[in-house]
Amino acid sequence: MALIFNGALTSLGLTIAAGIIGFVVAFILAYLRYRRVRVLDRIAASYIDFIRNTPLIVQPFFIAFGLPLLFGYVWPFWCHALLALSINFSGYFAEILRSGFASTQKGQIEAAAALNLPNKTVFGSIIVPQILIKMFPSLSSQFIFLFLTTGVISEIGVEDLTHAGLYIDSRTFRSFEVYIILSALYVAIALFLKASLHFVFMRTLGKRVA
Questions:
Q1: What is the pTM of this model?
Q2: Distance between CA atoms of 14 and 183, rounded to whole angstroms?
Q3: Is 2-209 in CATH node 1.10.3720.10?
């Protein structure tokens, strides 16, 4: 049980940390695309397309074994996993946020400009909250979906929930029971994340909707 518990904490912790880092990076990428700065827009678009069009399982292997071989550094496996998940999350979140920026009504921006509101106020108090409210269902669904794919980090040596299940199965040979429990735990954690995200949304942006 201790192995399963520690694996679940590892999976959950890495997912949350990577989600936060990935969201920050994604927001910057989406903003660069929204502003349409020629060179930066192309770089951001290329990055997003590359991440979204390469298999998730390839990314951790490249970061954990390819880059250290190239640059000669040594990190713990969980650091490689965190970096890989953050990069992967950022590519998917960025495309969702870009859609949110694209859906912003120009009339509201023009009305704010007519009132001589500062650009920072317009962006921070009008544009960003609307984007997050509109895109919250997509962002939360994508976050939970990506959590469910994090089992691939067990392939690079991270002792996550999937790794714990595989280890127990290799020692007990009771595959049916092990994977039933593993599936139930993933469902429980996914539902916990869903409820937590909804709670945070209602405590922050939900007040604007009500």
A1: 0.89
A2: 19
A3: yes
DSSP 8-state class, residue 124: I
- CA distance to 93, 182, 184, per residue, from 170 (Å): 36, 14, 19
- Amino acid, single-letter form, for residue 144: I
Structure confidence by residue, pLDDT tens digits, 33-75: 888 777 898 999 999 999 999 998 899 999 999 999 999 889 9
The Cα–Cα gap between 120 and 67 comes to: 39
Both structure tokens of 172: 């007990």
CB of 5 closer than 8 Å to CB of 181? no
CA nearest neighbour of 133 among 200, 195, 190:
200
Per-residue DSSP letter, 53? T
Query: What would you measure as the largest C-alpha separation in the chain, in angstroms?
Result: 70
